[in-house]
Amino acid sequence: MTNMPSAQDKIFATRARDEIRAWLSDKHFTHFVTLAFNEPMVGKERMRQKLKAWDARVNRRLLGKRWRKKTDERLNWLAIPEKQESNPHWHLLVQILPEQFSEFEEREFPFGFDAILETTWRMIVPSGTVDVQPVENNRVQSYITKQLNLPQNYEDFVVYREFFEL
């Protein structure tokens, strides 16, 4: 018995990747974020736990103590794992709505949105690094989905709503 994906699994994952790319091209994401661990042996479950902790802390910093109840105001994102066995990291597409930008500016965060994302990740993963870029075109959707044709990556991508506690 082998853990290698079958040809059917690969075909399904490739088709699914292409459909996700098409779906993402219709969305208006504002930021492309990479959350790297800089540790070779993180493991899938720990990757997911750290992403969940990052989501909670970022939303708390942006929305305040009652962030869990503000489901409509939380960050919208999609995270896709990459190189889980050797250089694990997450690629995220993040959507900040115009009204959220205005609200964040009114709160006068001392370091800005990008710094909140970075310092929060570094608190959770001290060896980690963060790269935040504005989304300027649809090429980023192809880039972050480049390994979704691998069945293990397709199975492990996360959408922010998975972490909601309803």
- Derived from helix and strand composition plus strand pairing, the structural class reads alpha+beta
Shape: globular
Tally of DSSP β-strands = 5
**Span between N and C termini?**
39 Å
Oligomer class: single chain
Summarize the structure.
This protein is an alpha+beta fold and 166 residues long. The protein contains six helices and five strands. The mean pLDDT is 85.
Give your account of this protein's structure:
By secondary structure, this protein is α+β, with helices and mostly antiparallel strands. Helix content is 43%, strand content 17%. It contains 6 helices and 5 strands; from the N terminus they run H-E-H-E-E-H-H-E-H-H-E. It has a 5-stranded antiparallel sheet. A hairpin with a 6-residue loop joins strand 2 and strand 3 (89-95). It is globular and about 50 Å long. The N and C termini lie far apart (39 Å). The model has no long low-confidence stretch (mean pLDDT 85).
